[in-house]
Amino acid sequence: MTERNPESMGESNRVLTVENLTVQYGGVPAVDGISFHVDAGELVGVIGPNGAGKSSTLLALVNAVRSSSQRLELSGASIAGKAPEYVARHGLALVTEGHHIFGELSVVDNLKLGRVARSSAAGLEEDMEWILGLFPILREFHSRSAGLLSGGQQQQLAIARALISSPQLLVLDEPSLGLSPTAVDTVFAAIEAVRQRGVAVLLVEQRAQQAVAAADRTHVLSEGRVTMTLTPSDASNSELLTKAYLGS
Amino acid sequence: MIPLLQSLVDAVSAGAIYALAALGIGLVFGIMRLANLAHGEIITGSAYTLIFLWEFSWPLALIASAVVGVVIALAMNFAVFHWLRAQSPATLLIASFGLSILFQRLYDAAFGTNVRTAPVGSGLSQSIAMGGIRINILSVITIVLGVVLLIAVHLFLTRTSIGLQVKAASSDFRMARILGVRSGFVIAITFAISGLLAAAVAFALTTQSGAVGPTFGVQATLFGLVGAVLGGLSKLSGAVVGGFAVGVVLSLFTSWLPPWANDFRTALVYVFVIIALVVAPNGLLAGRSKKDRT
User: Where are the alpha helices (DSSP H) in B112-235?
Assistant: First the structure.
């Protein structure tokens, strides 16, 4: 994970470009031509009610669902139609909703799987130290079966596993879902630390206020379209957030 | 109690063979949700190789049979199963059934319906006397082979990065890909290992009979599959234990049943399996089962 300067924006710093992305299930659009981008060092949020197309958008990025788009680029190279493993090995780490850790494997083995997508072993130990610093519980439970961890600990493991791949872009799908308030704080603190380190983050969240406050900008998704884009100053405007969720 | 000990050694040896067959089937099932009925034709291909090459050079025969097992398994994957990866387990099963018949016809056309014979491992079919009892060397070698291969596969799956990727893909295929696991590669590796295990089964069975025909591998595959289902196909340890149990029971029936009942020993094995599955429908060592191949 190389340090990047979050101040200098522009096309050359663009990590993710999504233009006119559409996902359909049986002819019904779940994502209906959305466009957005994430620059290096940015934290971009996506909020919206259930069924707005948030998860479909993320799965489309790694081609785990069929999609069409004008442009789908990771650091300037097209990832449209590429296999999920290709996208992972080119720097996009997706933590899916429900964290999907391998319950029958140990915590350590789960973490080792994060190395699969890593392009080089250089810096692995430092990254590992940093990641275990973010989630000390994983060090403590390293030999335990991952399935025996609590929901919050499994989420930490899933994020840690994604970070070990040393991604350019960390994509999180509702990381706080079903977690205790303490666990939510740990996860959000980790997301902030990741951004501080220069890794771009795309965060899908149900906790609208927390997401909007943390993100550089937050797109509101409704019925597969971006209906609004919010800035951190909107986080305290609960009327606006309610409108964003319920539609005007 | 001398015959008891001898029959127990034979039973463990038979158990080892079917445990290897069940492991080969279980590995592929884990990653593909494919109950590969054509596993038997991999065994047959390796067995023919042993028969044809044994008298020329036995080390060459052993190596070649392992290579042939791996090549046939990979060929089945790339020619057929690779293209059906996203299909349902039922489609995969039927495809493997067709492939099994096709290979049997090919063997028939190439080598004839009659069995081909060679004294494969004839030096091993002697018995050694140990403290008054006689133990078949071949049974001991089969047990050792089985144990060594089971440990090797276990170490591969738990101690190597590729093995870990195979386990991950078996558990949650889509998540493994999202983590960067190359789906085509781990599937090919799994088929290659199942081919190696089939070659080991071919060796154990060929040394016993010395004769190979076009349907040589069918019985071992059926018992291996039944054993794997008995133990629980969703968990490799279950498949191995189930395959072992079927082999042991089959062998004990062969040595202990009175002559009039011996013809029914295969049927009795299935009765045993049916009872076990009524008691534990998901297998004796059931794990969870899932998932799609997207």
Answer: 137-159, 161-171, 173-178, 183-209, 218-231
Q: Rg of chain B over CA atoms, in angstroms?
A: 19
**Other CB atoms closer than 10 Å to residue B133's CB: what's the count?**
15
Sign of torsion over alpha carbons B49, B52, B58, B60:
negative
CA dihedral B172, B176, B179, B185 (to 10 degrees): 180
Q: Tell me the Ramachandran region of residue B13: left when phi exceeds 0, alpha when psi lies from -120 to 50, beta otherwise.
A: alpha
pTM of the model: 0.90
Q: Give φ, ψ of A82 to 5 degrees.
A: -80, 150
Nearest by CB: B171 against A94, A96, A104? A104
Closest chain B C-alpha to A136 CA, distance in angstroms: 22
3-state secondary structure of A172: strand
d(CA B134, CA B163): 40
Residue B93: band (very low, low, confident or very high) from pLDDT cuts 50, 70, 90: very high
Query: Tokens representing B117?
Result: 């014979």
Q: How is residue A211 written in tokens? A: 């997401």
Give A13-103+170-246's CATH code, choosing from 1.20.1530.20, 3.20.20.70, 3.40.50.300, 2.60.120.560: 3.40.50.300
Do residues A175 and A95 make contact, with C-beta atoms less than 8 angstroms apart? Answer: yes
- Domains identified in chain B, total number: 1
**Tokens of residue A64, six digits:** 């785990």
| Residues in chain B within 8 Å Cβ distance of A62 | 178
pLDDT in tens, A109-167: 999 999 999 988 889 999 999 999 999 999 999 999 999 999 999 999 999 999 999 99
Question: Are the C-beta atoms of A75 and A15 separated by less than 8 Å?
Answer: yes
| 180-199 of B, contacting A, C-beta below 8 A | 180-183
CA atoms within 13 A of residue A15's CA, in its CB half-sphere: 26
Strand partners, B211: B117
Length of chain A: 248
Backbone region of residue A223 per phi and psi (left: phi > 0; alpha: psi in -120 to 50; beta: other values): left
Q: Which residues span the domain enclosing B158? A: 23-218
CA nearest to A59, candidates A72, A44, A77, A78: A72
Question: Mean per-residue pLDDT for B53-66?
Answer: 95
Is B250 inside a domain boundary? Answer: no
Contact status of B175 with chain A (Cβ, < 8 Å): yes
**How crowded is residue B18: how many other Cβ atoms within 10 Å of its Cβ?**
33
Residue matched to tokens 């780490």? A93
Q: What is the distance between the alpha carbons of residues B291 and B272, in angstroms, rounded to a whole number?
A: 29
Residues B42 and B197: their CA atoms lie apart, in Å, by: 10
